Amino acid sequence: MIKMNDLQLLLKKYWNYEDFKGSQKAIIEAVLNGKDVLALLPTGGGKSLCYQIPAMAKDGICVVVSPLIALIQNQVQQLKDIGIKSVALTGGISKDELIKLLDNCIYGNYKFLYLSPERLQQEMVQERIGEMNINLFAIDEAHCISQWGNDFRPAYLNCSLLRDIKPEIPVIAVTATATAQVAQDIIKNLRFKAHEIFKDSYTRKNIYFGVIWEEDKQRRLYELCRNTQQSGIIYVRTRRTAQEISTFLNRRKISATFYHGGIPKEEKEKKLKLWLENEVQIMVATNAFGMGIDKADVALVIHYQIPESIENYYQEAGRAGRNGLPAKAIMITNKNDELQLRNQFLKVLPDVRFLKLLYNKLNNYFQIPYGTLSGEIYHFRFEEFCELYNFNAVLAYNGLQILDQNSVISLSQNFTRKTTVQFLVSKDQLLNYLERHQKVAPIVQTILRTYGGIFDFETKINTLLISKKSSLSEEKILSILQQLESDNIISLKAINRDLELLFLVPREDDLTINNFAKKVEIQLKTKKDKIDSMVAYIKTDTRCRNRQLLSYFGEESTQNCNNCDNCTRPKGLDQDSFLKIKRDIMALLEEKHSSSRDIIQELPQNEQLILKVLQKLLEDGNISINTKNEYNLEQ
User: Which CATH architecture does the domain made up of 346-416+498-515 adopt?
Assistant: First the structure.
């Protein structure tokens, strides 16, 4: 019988914590008693300890399924750093290396085996897991298993095969972002037996949640960062925006760097190290950054663009204030952002009608007769296909992904639709080069007319489009780009954009799609609902932010947090009135320093409301008071 004192000794010895928090102790006891467990804990709630501690307390090895290679590597390195033997089955390892690592898990007294759900599908991996002395199966980020979850991963559905390999071993599923519907889906898909559900409150009392409506978003961003002395994260949706914001802040003497999925591994590690060690204050990042990153002293998380779901927002905002000290999670937005959000995430979601059209054209493109199943692997010129049938490339690619997920076709997994270019020389140097190499001039001019910012950033280009505009073959375009690269005029990343495609079922046109049409409709509605919920959260200015977030995750509270923008906004002011008075005050102070009496005389609004707005602007650091008791804008 394992005693709680023994567990606390493990906690202190390896993780240097004095005691468990929240439901950790109860979760660990349930796991050690052989129960299946679903643990719903907020970001920063210590989910990993809920399976690491019981695994360390028992003989054998714990198998952990996790969605991201970066997260797997991060957790395995953390375990190794504290002296716990762990293995990660990541991509790019040879068959011999895989066999060696699996042998280590069987014979080498290792305590943890981390792998992705895709790796779990390999027969060799399943066979060797069957030979291991397993003490626990852990499913991390378990919301990925549900079609209603924010990051649904079809491969996660097959995690249940662990129950067939070792039916007697308990399973723990952990996540920070599960609605009631997602929680039930997890329990069903993992075939839980005798189980318990633990849910800690999602409330984060030390975090101030706020939404700022601002046309000049960069200026507001600068003000927030300038008034923060500790670490911060700024979340954006695109790689280019990450680079632009980082450059903007550095030019204004705020130490910043950027992070996104397109950065080489070594550079990512360098940037992360600088930020973790406080050599750089602000990390500007896409959502590729954050999962598994444990930095306690983040005092500010800013969303510069609207996330696609409350799950994403809450998880990212929750990276603030993990040390329990006051922190802020601010979203800066304006009226254009909602349109951009819907365009980016909804307009490229294929519906059933489009999937039927896409599948029909795909069969026609390869001349597949009705009722026939071809066993041939086809070389697929994707951009040519989109051009021929006038398909939006992103919409078509998402449609192909759905056909792949539903086993209608099989796509090659190394496909990337990307050629990026950045000019390395100045415009004058480029002109001199083109005078000496006049044959390439028309191509270069076409690229410059088509793509802005190509001197400052890596820019994705469409070589088929350039080919059409210049009336040259795509092969010729690629040849010229390679010449420009060899002459050090551009940096070029040209990746094979062609797919390999295999049809998995006979062609039956609409009937093929009808088999999973209902599931597609549900997933489409789920994504739309998530965006609607996110937009509603932003626009709701009369209800406590914390209560809105808790309600979304099925946790009702009757207490306001008294710490968010809605709770602390001056009474008697709705959002529109507040913003109007704020704009009027800021415009007046742009012209001259003014006392409160001067401002009240100049503006037509109610005196008490003006004074409330002035107080709020002072608190937020928008304005300050000089020695003459005059208000002035903070620079």
Answer: Orthogonal Bundle (1.10)
Which pTM value belongs to this model? 0.74
Task: Look up the CATH architecture of domain 4-199.
Answer: 3-Layer(aba) Sandwich (3.40)
Superfamily designation of domain 207-342+529-556: P-loop containing nucleotide triphosphate hydrolases (3.40.50.300)
If 0-12 CB within 10 Å is exposed, 13-18 middle and 19+ buried, where does residue 34 land?
exposed
R_g of the chain computed on alpha carbons: 28
Q: Show Cβ contacts of residue 367 under 8 Å, excluding neighbours closer than 6 positions.
A: none
Stated as kind and residue range, the H or E segment containing 134 is strand 134-139
Tens-place pLDDT, residues 49-84 = 999 999 999 999 999 998 877 678 878 988 999 999
> Residue 286 is which amino acid?
T
- Region 390-397 average pLDDT: 91
State the pLDDT at residue 149.
63
Rounded mean pLDDT, 177-205: 89
Enumerate the β-bridge partners of residue 234. 284, 302
Mean pLDDT computed over every residue of the chain: 88
CB burial of 250-261 (b: ≥16 within 10 Å; e: otherwise) equals beeebebbbbbe
What is the per-residue pLDDT for 498?
60
Structure tokens of 439? 């044959």
Greater confidence, 574 or 118?
118
Kindly indicate the confidence band of residue 570, based on its pLDDT and cuts at 50, 70 and 90: confident
Which two three-digit tokens encode residue 54?
Answer: 């019981």
Give the number of other Cβ atoms within 10 Å of residue 147's Cβ: 16
Shared fold status for 4-199 and 207-342+529-556: yes
Going from N- to C-terminal start, the domains of the chain cover 4-199, 207-342+529-556, 346-416+498-515, 419-494, 575-633
CATH 1.10.10.10 fits 575-633, yes or no: yes
Residue type for position 255: S
For residue 535, count other CB atoms closer than 10 A to its CB.
Answer: 16
Q: If DSSP codes are grouped into helix, strand and coil, which group holds residue 88? A: strand
Rounded CA-CA distance 3/261 in Å is 44
Angle at Cα 382 formed by Cα 381 and Cα 383, nearest 5°? 100
